[in-house]
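User: Please fill in residues for this 383-position structure.
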């Protein structure tokens, strides 16, 4: 099995090498330079991907890619840059906080190099959710360093905050002609208490609060409200009962006839989970780990599912009449793999088309994603 895995890794490495030869209510930030005009001038495409979780091996790889001076995360993410950069709006999940002055650590208390933010920006990400169970791994200082670095890179953020005013401010991003509000919450912070006097530092999952925030975002002018949730049971392919119940409640919430939330993006479980249309709204229960070192499950075994993920891509069209919701006219998922040997994110369909033997991995991810009937609601596998 080890020899077989190395053969696949070498094939993927060769393919990768060949391929490489507003936050204020009415102050939506413009798209960063480099993003194309929307293919449909009236609508937009949104892509979202899973956990960025730099273990020590990832940090070492980024240092190697930088030639031993500094850290370069751009090559790690280059395999998805074509997908991400072509979207009108691209969202990631930054699971860890950033350290400083070379004090960088992996599991269990993460402190990542701030150059991660530069790599995300270069890949084309416009914003990231930052609420996770690791948000307080280095207290309030970790949050401050992380959000400062994302700001310097031009990547917006939602889910953690440096001040009460920031915590109360809706993150609004431009996507073609639309204003998209991004909200983010986590189930817990690994037992770390919120910093003294800063109960607003990390958004915790609370159904009533999420609905209230979504309604406030809509009242502030958001055309589309996207909610990122760090939730679920680790290493479980199927969504757990809490995920199912919360998805039902959030997607059922309406103001008049219009849903308060237009899309739910799930992270945390370390494995890909199903996509499902719930009460007419798309829910991704879990996208999986986009970037992570070798992952070990609760039984202590190395588990390749921990390096598998999906990227969701949704095409939105404006409402036929004012006051109605923006409709998802096309829903897609793209299966991905983090090749731990090459240290690269791999688009599995692209790799398969180029001759890599990854069909089994691709098909396993597809089966999980479609396990709750999403194909009947129009979800397709994209490239």
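Assistant: Residues filled in for all 383 positions:
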């Amino acid at each position: 099995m080890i020899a077989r895995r190395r053969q696949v890794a070498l094939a993927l490495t060769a393919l990768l090498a060949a391929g490489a030869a507003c936050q204020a209510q009415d102050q939506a930030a413009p798209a960063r330079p480099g993003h194309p005009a929307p293919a449909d001038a009236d609508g937009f495409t949104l892509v979202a991907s899973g956990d960025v979780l730099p273990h020590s091996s990832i940090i070492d790889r980024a240092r190697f890619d930088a030639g031993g001076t500094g850290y370069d995360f751009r090559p790690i993410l280059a395999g998805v840059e074509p997908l991400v950069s072509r979207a009108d709006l691209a969202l990631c999940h930054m699971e860890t906080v950033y350290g400083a002055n070379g004090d960088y650590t992996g599991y269990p208390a993460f402190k990542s190099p701030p150059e991660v933010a530069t790599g995300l920006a270069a890949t084309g990400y416009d914003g990231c959710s930052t609420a996770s169970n690791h948000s307080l791994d280095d207290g309030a200082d970790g949050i401050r360093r992380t959000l400062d670095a994302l700001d310097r890179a031009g990547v917006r953020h939602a889910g953690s905050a440096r001040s009460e005013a920031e915590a109360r401010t809706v993150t609004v991003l431009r996507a073609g002609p639309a204003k998209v509000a991004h909200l983010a919450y986590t189930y817990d912070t690994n037992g770390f208490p919120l910093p003294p006097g800063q109960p607003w530092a990390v958004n915790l999952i609370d159904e009533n609060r999420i609905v209230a925030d979504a309604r406030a975002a809509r009242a502030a002018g958001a055309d589309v409200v996207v909610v990122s949730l760090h939730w679920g049971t680790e290493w479980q392919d199927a969504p757990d009962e809490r995920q199912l119940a919360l998805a039902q409640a959030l997607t059922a919430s309406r103001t008049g006839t219009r849903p308060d939330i237009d899309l739910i993006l799930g992270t945390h479980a370390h494995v890909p989970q199903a996509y499902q249309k719930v009460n007419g709204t798309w829910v991704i229960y879990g996208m999986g780990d986009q970037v992570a070192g070798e992952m070990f499950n609760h039984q202590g075994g190395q588990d390749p599912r921990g390096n598998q993920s999906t990227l969701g891509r949704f095409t939105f069209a404006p409402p036929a009449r004012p006051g109605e919701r923006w409709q998802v006219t096309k829903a897609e998922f793209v299966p991905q793999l983090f090749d731990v040997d090459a240290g690269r994110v791999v688009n599995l369909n692209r790799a398969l088309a180029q001759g890599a033997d990854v069909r089994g991995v691709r098909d396993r991810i597809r089966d999980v994603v479609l396990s709750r009937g999403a194909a009947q609601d129009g979800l397709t596998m994209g490239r």
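For context: The chain has one domain: 2-381.
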